[in-house]
Amino acid sequence: METMGNLRRTHYVGALRAQDAGTEMTVAGSIAKCRDKGGVIFADLRDTTGLLQLIFDDSTAKDVFEKASHLKTEYVVMAKGVLREREAKTDKIPTGEVELFVTELRVLSEAQTTPFEIRDEINVNDQLRLKYRYLDLRRPSMHEPIVMRSKIGKVIRDYYEENHFYEIETPMLIKSTPEGARDYLVPSRVQQGRFYALPQSPQLYKQILMLSGFDRYFQIVRCFRDEDLRADRQPEFTQVDMEMSFVTEDDVMTMNEGLVKRVFREVLGVDVQTPFLRMPYREAMNRFGSDKPDMRFGLELCDVTEAVKDSTFVVFQSAVQARGSVRALVAKGMADKLTRKEIDKLVEVAKTYGAKGLAYTRWTSEACSSSFEKFLTEEEKQALYAAAGMEQGDVLLIAADASWEKACTVLGAVRLAIGEKFELIDKDAFAFLWVTDFPLFEYDEENGRYVAKHHPFTMPKDEDLDRLESDPANCRAKAYDMVLNGCEVGGGSIRINDPALQSRMFAALGFTPERAEESFGFLTEAYRYGAPPHGGMAFGFDRLVMLMLKRDSIRDVIAFPKVQNAGEPMTGCPERVDEKQLDELAIAVCLPQNGEQTPEA
């Protein structure tokens, strides 16, 4: 192997085109592919910007040609030469019109055979790819999202700074507070038996920054939640966090619409139309069965409770008597596609979301089959058809439950399953909307009390302030979520800035004054020194990048992600630590029968 010596890179290869022919240059990178054609050697050099063909032929110096003849995939090289137009041009790569005739070659690092090919369109086990993540990231399809992520971050910073925001860092070691997901805890060596938490978000700090007079704050920040993983969730993730003083809900939403418009235009060249559609939470649930509806296709839900209120069918009857809901979805003209076998699959989807089943009617040109119509009178059946808009050629799907929310959610999941299965979703579209007017509280069945739908610092709607204690189920919040293609990409609210109202909120959530003081006393104390009205939101940065690049998992847009068990295959973490470290922290480790370690302070 050689050193760079006096060679220094002069050009990245990705932007080289025919107009650059005749330029002497030095490039550097890894060999993606090498082909010896007998007297002519072609090597594709890959750097972070793209690929460029290197060529060595009978006019190449003998020592340089000899080195080239030993090149193998993933060797790291520097090559000096003159760029020239290719005889056999290709449109498969952006640099397909040019090649570098090499006059000087240095092999800086050799490489052994990789566990899988470093190219796109490979079928490789995910665990192997993650174990060798540094190799997987060399593939163009995996390299691109990380580069794109960096570009998106720059646009975000530029936009906020142009709009008078300050980028301010908040602590990573913070106080553990209730009412959120499970914290990651960090033991203190100095104060043994006490723990920090890693932040789930900078929520309290950014509110305190508003009280500190900074007026507008933003941060692209790492956050941590000890929760189960899924395609769009990681134990550590990145948030675009922002807060503004002296604003309304409309101000915050308008500011962040402008951000999204700027990001999509500058990074993707896509013109996002603003203002976004705004839809109250209850309307979103009623029409689409979701508080983050995918607006790229139709199939809206409807309420048929009134039409079946006198039915003797026990499923409908039970829901009506419990003051629940009977919701319907009509798949127009899909009777031939939605066979009984396909409907059975949808029943399983419904059961996954807590339903006991799914009532259906399938009306083809030959016959009408139904799982429930034998329990209805002819008048009831016609009233149901009219309420749902059911016609010949359609399939009617019905969910009934004592809970309005569950009935909606079940059919919302069925709607998405139909959209995916029958390709009703426009995969090229970017469909944004705001969901607003969320419930302030939701009832926690397990603990038998109300909890905050978002967090305890969310401002109630002005018209609902008087019912905070008397009717919490019908209190709405000054809260808003930005939704893109059926995914929540960001959410926020106007915050409480009155210590008396904040105390009422804590009481409504079941906090004793002592517990509220212990957990949040520093915040309520700060309120007493003058707090401007303020609000903000946070974007899931990983999720936004994932959706912009049309990827299926946020793991594709994170350099070193975790897997299902919250481990990292490449480094092998989490790992045991030695006894000395545990002793310094006054921690003993108890190993349960299954062999997993459970720390006890």
TrEMBL record:
Gene behind the chain: aspS
Pfam families: GAD, tRNA-synt_2, tRNA_anti-codon
Residue ranges constituting the Aminoacyl-transfer RNA synthetases class-II family profile domain according to the UniProt record: 148-561
Entry's family note: Belongs to the class-II aminoacyl-tRNA synthetase family. Type 1 subfamily.
Enzyme class: ligase
GO molecular function: aspartate-tRNA ligase activity; ATP binding; catalytic activity, acting on a protein; nucleic acid binding; transferase activity
Keyword Signal: no
Protein name (database record): Aspartate--tRNA ligase
Lineage: Bacteria, Bacillati, Bacillota, Clostridia, Eubacteriales
